[in-house]
Write a structure and sequence with these properties.
The chain has helices at about 5-25, 30-40, 105-140, 150-190; strands at about 40-50, 50-55, 55-65, 70-75, 80-85, 90, 95-100, 195, 200-205, 210-215, 220-225, 230-235, 245-250, 255-270, 275-285, 295-300, 305-310, 315-320, 320-330, 330-345, 345-350, 360-365, 375. The protein is α+β, with helices and mostly antiparallel strands. Among the domains are: about 40-55 and about 305-375, conserved putative lor/sdh protein from methanococcus maripaludis s2 fold (Beta Barrel), CATH 2.40.420; about 100-190, Helix Hairpins, CATH 1.10.287. The strands form five sheets. The chain has a six-stranded antiparallel sheet with strand order 2-17-21-20-19-18, with no helix packed on it. Helix 3 (about 105-140) packs antiparallel against helix 4. The relative contact order is 0.19.
Length: about 375
């Protein structure tokens, strides 16, 4: 056999092998999908362009502050007899935190009580004297038409009645003064038991047993850690979105995400930092492992929430330095250039190029061409 015949036989054998491989590929699932894709179009998944509310936030560091905190001071004077609390103790409203020596104060109250009783007796005597001189005046008035009537004696008795009436007024004033002194002595005796004006935790002790306290001297410092607010110095440019009652999110140092509402914006601006103090009322949901001056992160709105047109991030492709998407229209891919704005979760704000309701390709769009036929994937 000639060399030409042998070469021809080898070429026919190679051709038959290539045709067999192509048949096998055509019979496989991938081959069938490729042929179907070529005949019917590229398989894609789509998503709708829709409107969503956009509320941008900016993080601001705030701190927890107690609405009630301060120094409990002595309201009367005297040496300290007993201190009933230590730093870290929790007290309720009205609990006794310290007691002064009571001997002098009790003696003072007894003295004032005796003086009040004496003034009461003096007033009673003045009233009896007034009654007596009134009786004498009436007797003289009954003798006015008799020969025994004396005009001079009658006029003297009228003056005695007026004097007795003044004595009653003077005695009443003295009694009132002594009763006030007694009340003040009782108040001092009651204030010798120094009580907590509100519930909270003792953060500092300022005195010890044996120390002498005057009115206004510090005894303990209390912090009401069950009534906390959030205070933050907010840039003046961010105040517009913080009307009273506005709800915002914040995060504790342990990662807990909670809600709070704006209670008040203090109308005073720091000229150095250009910030204003804002107070927030938080919702702690039972989380009480908190402390004053603890840092929190507030997420404040940049401005008023607004509705924006959004597209899924998977639909956006970068080609030639521009952002494009493929819109599914009449069974074909329509390529459009778009302009994007802010991110909204897993979507982008669309400033220009798309309208609400457009169907954009989010899967299978990497190799699409303008006008190429497309077929919706099952479940896509």
């Amino acid at each position: 056999m000639s060399e030409w015949a042998v070469g021809r036989r080898w070429r026919h054998a190679i051709l038959r092998m290539a045709m067999a491989v192509m048949c096998l590929l055509a019979l496989s699932p991938a081959g069938e999908a490729q042929q179907r894709g070529g005949r019917e179009g590229a398989l894609v998944a789509i998503d709708e362009v829709r409107q969503m509310p956009l509320s941008q936030t900016v993080p601001v560091i705030g701190r927890l502050v107690a609405r009630q905190s301060g120094v409990v001071a002595a309201r009367t004077r005297g040496p300290v007899a007993e201190i009933r609390v230590n730093v870290g103790d929790r007290v309720e409203n009205g609990d006794i935190v310290a007691v002064l020596v009571l001997d002098r104060l009790e003696a003072e109250r007894r003295l004032r009580a005796a003086e009040a009783a004496e003034a009461q007796a003096a007033m009673q005597t003045a009233k009896e004297e007034f009654t007596f001189v009134q009786q004498e005046l009436r007797r003289l008035e009954n003798l006015r038409r008799s020969a025994a009537f004396s005009q001079a004696r009658y006029e003297d008795k009228v003056q005695d009645v007026a004097k007795a009436r003044s004595s009653i007024a003077e005695a009443e004033a003295v009694l009132l003064r002594e009763q006030v002194n007694l009340t003040m002595a009782e108040i001092d005796l009651r204030d010798a038991e120094i009580r907590a004006p509100f519930g909270g935790v003792v953060s500092m002790r300022h005195t010890e047993v044996g120390s002498y306290l005057n009115v206004g001297d510090d005894v303990v410092t209390l912090i009401n850690d069950l009534n906390l607010e959030i205070e933050a110095d907010v840039p003046a440019s961010r105040i517009s979105g913080l009307a009273p009652g506005t709800e915002i999110a914040f995060r504790l140092s342990d990662g807990s995400d909670l809600k709070a509402k704006v209670r008040a914006v203090v109308p005073e601006e720091n000229p150095l930092t250009r910030t204003r103090t804002v107070r927030f009322t938080p919702e702690f949901n039972g989380n009480r492992n908190l402390a004053t001056n603890q840092s929190v992160t507030l997420y404040l709105p940049v401005g008023e929430p607004r509705d924006v047109t959004t597209v899924h991030k998977d639909a956006v492709i970068s080609r030639g330095g521009r952002k494009i998407v493929f819109v599914a229209k009449d069974g074909a891919a329509d390529m459009r250039s778009i302009r994007l704005g802010e991110a909204v979760g897993s979507r982008f704000e669309v400033v220009d190029g798309l309208e609400q309701g457009d169907l954009v390709v989010v899967r299978g769009n990497e190799r699409l061409r303008q006008g190429q036929k497309i077929v919706l994937r099952e479940g896509g």
